[in-house]
Amino acid sequence: MSKHFHRRNLPHLYFSDGIYFLTSRLKNSIPAEKLEQLRNETKNNSDQKQKRLFKKYDALMDSGEYGEKYLKINECAEIVKTTLHYTDGKDYKLICYCIMPNHFHMVFELLQNNKGISKIMQSIKRISARDCNKILNRSEAFWQDESFDRWVRDEKELYFVIRYVLLNPVNAGLVDDWKDWKYSY
Q1: Which residues, at least 6 apart from 142, have a Cβ–Cβ distance to it below 8 Å?
Q2: The pTM is what?
Q3: Tens digits of residue pLDDT in 70-116
Q4: CA–CA distance from 100 to each of 5, 76, 97, 116 (Å)?
Q5: How far apart are CA 87 and CA 57, in angstroms?
Q6: Number of separate helices (H) and strands (E) present in the chain
């Protein structure tokens, strides 16, 4: 198992195998001043506080108060869905996902000889952005540059991550039962 660490705004720890939880959001789905507040809160905090701050971050996206909600458009959500499934069985085994109006969560297990999380995400975001922008008749940036990713450490964490992903539309008040959300897997 090889390991790679780098940091932009968020820390990224990538292994060549394992299970990952990933969140990617549309460009400008959270205002810069709100992100700055969260960054200030995350400085020098424990892992437990970090988890609470992630929930605040996700609540900002789920609120629907900010930015565009292009993934609420069925054609765009279908493009993201198709793109997530495209490399299933090639680079990763898709465990679950949820496509929300302005972001998506996914959980997957890296397969042997995968091209790496950075390249996988670049591909997903590049292809889905290109195709969604065609539908929307626009050419601006579609996705936020950086995604949130977390290596899932054990079965217990995997259970809670899957639960979190599938219940996201329920917690956001979009449906009463996760099975009713069209863009969950």
Answers
A1: 26, 27, 70, 125, 128, 129, 132, 133
A2: 0.84
A3: 999 999 999 999 999 999 999 999 999 999 999 999 999 999 999 98
A4: 28, 11, 10, 25
A5: 28
A6: 5, 6
Can you tell me the distance from the alpha carbon of 65 to that of 35, in angstroms, rounded to the nearest whole number? Answer: 14
- Which residues form the domain of 101? 3-180
The dihedral of CA 46, 153, 83, 97: what is its sign? Answer: negative
| Pair 26, 67: CB distance under 8 Å | yes
Phi first, then psi: what are they for 16, rounded to 5°?
A: -80, -10
In a domain, 120, yes or no: yes
Q: How many domains does the chain have?
A: 1
Q: Which domain CATH number covers 166?
A: 3.30.70.1290
Identify the residue whose tokens are 């959500």: 77
